[in-house]
Design brief:
about 120 residues, mainly alpha, 6 helices
Length: about 120
């Protein structure tokens, strides 16, 4: 936000814009590319909950594996059950799912970019 020139805010103030209008009509459009990147990173992070689940459940997945997510199931399939081929297939499907989710989120959040 510090990279946005103050002249844009001054021009908005001269037009009579309050702080809310300046935020939505100056700040958000100029930061939209950064916001899009953050949305993609959050979507990818939501798909990878291996560390929090493993730490909170002590690596067991909770009672009856109730807290299991795809990455923890993949890990237990590969290293506890020894089914490396099945775990590799799950990893590939997870990779494709994350890629499709990223492309879809980038398509839905696309708009004209502003340069200053």
């Amino acid at each position: 936000m510090q990279g946005i020139p103050p002249e844009f805010y001054e021009a908005a103030e001269l037009d009579g814009a309050n702080s809310w209008v300046k935020f939505w009509n100056v700040t958000v459009p100029l930061l939209w590319d950064t916001i899009r990147t953050a949305i993609v990173f959050l979507a990818i992070g939501a798909m990878d909950l291996f560390a929090p689940v493993t730490v909170m459940t002590n690596g067991t997945g909770g009672p009856s594996r109730a807290a299991d997510v795809v990455p923890t199931y993949l890990y237990s399939t590969a290293f506890s059950d020894g089914q490396f081929g099945y775990a590799t297939a799950m990893g590939l499907v997870l990779l494709i799912l994350v890629f499709v989710l990223s492309v879809v989120s980038l398509r839905f959040t696309s708009r004209e970019s502003f340069e200053f």
